[in-house]
Write a structure and sequence with these properties.
Nucleotidyltransferase, domain 5, alpha/beta, Dna Ligase, domain 1, single chain, FtsA/MreB, five-stranded mixed beta sheet, ATPase_NBD, Type IV pilus assembly protein PilM, six-stranded mixed beta sheet, 353 residues, PilM
Length: 353
């Protein structure tokens, strides 16, 4: 989405994931039939540098990223172009049902729908779309993915790239990148819910050969941490250790976050119900994949599997990547790199197409 054409075609691309509390960078390259890891790095992001999706201080963020690139602990960064993502909480996403139209007619129809359904002036938006394929049970209609991002957010990223001296290949929504990294060839014909659990928010995406639906909620891992800190009378740092240590296997911790879990479970069921009521029985959701920095809470997959009646697993974005000779990412941190991996993968896939 939001593709920018370049004069040259270089395969390697930095995948840049700027989250609410951290920045992650990944560079991959293609070597014969292997996807090789060139380098990866993660750093905490100070507060108030990103406000409602806008990089408020692009020069300061650029300095932090430059430091990450020169002080990278594993591998190196050599790419001159970058693909970044905008959090789905700051993106307007709609799946439209439209008749078969020519290129110009389709663009006009999408822009009309954007004007009708998005509460912002068209001049304040960057709009893109993708034809997903035939609508379920409607041969004469197509599902069309409409994506619109506030121009102020996109412009702040463009300014960041200028400070970095990198050429932007694309800016896309984070769920598209996450799905690219997580869905294996064996799973590509399945229908599943992907939950990208960040510190402050969670992005939900329904995958059915492509991203068909998305939603975002202002709920993330910090909510669990806060409830544990309050219940146990400990600091946020100590609560975080408890959360990622024994997690929900500890009954006292389970009791402390019971209300948060109920809210999270309710949001998941709401997304599943919305999708399943609008599709054929054979295309209903059968699996939930968790990823993001807050996905690895011990006991969370078992809890959600019991409550939803579906298979639930932690997504592993590294499974098809050859990391040798670099040190592998610790297991508990691995899901947090899904977005950055998916972004870098896009550069490789587009160069090969």
């Amino acid at each position: 989405m939001l593709k920018q054409d370049l004069v040259y075609k270089q395969k390697d691309c930095l995948g840049l994931d700027i989250g609410a509390s951290s920045i992650k960078i990944v560079q991959l390259k293609k070597k014969k039939n292997l996807t090789k890891l060139v380098g990866y790095e993660s750093r905490k992001l100070p507060d108030n540098l990103v406000i409602e999706g806008i990089i408020s201080e692009p020069k300061t963020v650029a300095e932090l990223i430059k430091k990450m690139m020169t002080e990278v602990k594993e591998g190196k960064f050599t790419a001159e172009k970058v693909i970044a993502s905008i959090p789905d909480t700051n993106v307007f996403i709609r799946v439209l049902e439209l008749p078969n139209l020519s290129g110009k007619e389709l663009k006009e129809a999408v822009m009309w729908e954007a004007d009708q359904s998005i509460p912002m002036a068209p001049t304040d938006l960057v709009v893109d779309f993708q034809v997903l394929g035939p609508s379920a049970g409607k041969d004469d209609m197509n599902d069309v993915l409409l994506v619109a991002a506030p121009r102020a957010i996109v412009n702040s990223y463009v300014q960041l790239f200028q400070f970095l001296g990198l050429k932007p290949e694309a800016i896309e929504m984070s769920l598209s990148a996450v799905i690219r990294a997580l869905i294996s060839n064996k799973e590509k014909n399945e229908v599943m819910l992907v939950a990208d659990i960040g510190a402050k928010s969670t992005n939900f995406g329904v995958y059915d050969n492509a991203l068909r639906f998305s939603d975002s909620v202002d709920f993330g891992g910090d909510a669990f941490t806060g409830s544990i800190a309050k219940s146990f009378g400990v600091s946020e740092e100590q609560a975080e250790e408890k959360k990622i240590g024994t997690g929900l296997h500890d009954q006292k911790i389970l009791d402390a976050v019971k209300s948060d879990l109920a809210n999270f479970e309710s949001e998941i069921k709401k997304v599943i119900r919305y999708h399943d009521e609008r599709t054929n029985e054979e295309r209903r959701i059968t699996k939930i994949i968790l990823c993001g920095g807050s996905a690895n809470v011990p006991g969370l997959t078992e809890y959600l599997a019991e409550k939803s009646g579906l298979e639930v697993k932690i997504g592993n974005p590294w499974v098809n990547i050859d990391t040798y000779p670099l040190k592998q990412v610790p297991k508990k941190e691995a899901p947090a790199f899904a977005n950055a991996i998916g972004l870098s993968l896009r550069g490789i896939l587009e160069a090969d197409s």
